[in-house]
């Protein structure tokens, strides 16, 4: 089977809960960012929100993007690591229901979770316990699946530790070996203070498409203006997708600046907006859409995610909607 995209990333089960500001203050985590926690702290958080209605689904940054691609009608495979526990089985079943292939064997231990605390202002505070997802190794990367893919998509979170860093680099190496394009998402501004040189090396080297938001682009380039940042990144990467929140995004392709307008939406939950944006771009460019058309689809998809609870589209786009969005 051939794939539009082969993704590599963490395997997390998202547990989403709407809470008030006072609850977040009591938990004492920095609002609006992702914080890595150990299993014990994660259990304390789950206890603190006991009694609140929660939703649960397979997640993780790159996994959200892969599910978005399939939701648009694309094809995808995913490399990740889960345990043989109930959470791991839930993850695999949930991905399988979406038609996503995961061929990495399970292991002993605890699967990863991400508790997403959503305050009334739609900000999301993510508490991530990576569990066995940090044990993904280069041996878990399937060369045959990469060879049959148009793009390999790698999340920046993998570079926070070994062996996931080596697994990510292995996927990139195999992609280059088989003339498969490489897309890379910076994932989070906090990563740049620790991995800036390595990320720049990737962008200047094997990466064909880099995804980042404005804060990440500024940290990487030292520039302030969005278009200046995009140009600087485009000096090294063949393609750039720079998101600007409600102001839309900027794409760079073949030296041209392609502005993409934002889509007005009443925010409910910003979880996964960037992941779904990446899904729209990757689906589009692997299925015959122009970069402008792909950007439109990505922008509308990200807005739809922001207007609902959760990172997966509650109301998927129909084929007719996609055709209407991409029309000139």
From TrEMBL:
Domain Carbohydrate kinase PfkB stretches: 50-315
Enzyme kind, highest EC tier: transferase
PROSITE patterns: PFKB_KINASES_2
Top-level taxon in the UniProt lineage: Bacteria
E.C. code: 2.7.1.92
Family classification: Belongs to the carbohydrate kinase PfkB family.
Name by which UniProt lists this protein: 5-dehydro-2-deoxygluconokinase
The organism of origin for this protein: Thalassoglobus neptunius
